Amino acid sequence: MTNGSFIPFLLLGRAVGDVEEGSARSAARIVGQKWAGGAEAKGGICRYDTWRCVRAEGMPASDAVLAGLMNVEMPLTETQDVCALNARINRLEVGPIDQSV
30 Cβ partners below 8 Å, 6+ apart? Predict the structure, then answer.
């Protein structure tokens, strides 16, 4: 997606499987849902250790943040109603992982 607005949020300290599952459920219903914690690059988002051009040493503090980093990308042309709908869907699908979402 191009020409969009990114809305990041963090599920810090949650189990990777829970975050991955919530991300998948949300992505099935929201255009532009992305998760930065996957072992392989997906949808233009990736962790430093998936880069093929450099050898990366482990960075545990960065890994912990990336494991919980979610991103919703909304086109700038979306209406407020569509944005509100996507926010409700995201709360329903990801909210159970962390009640602060």
Answer: 72, 86, 89, 90
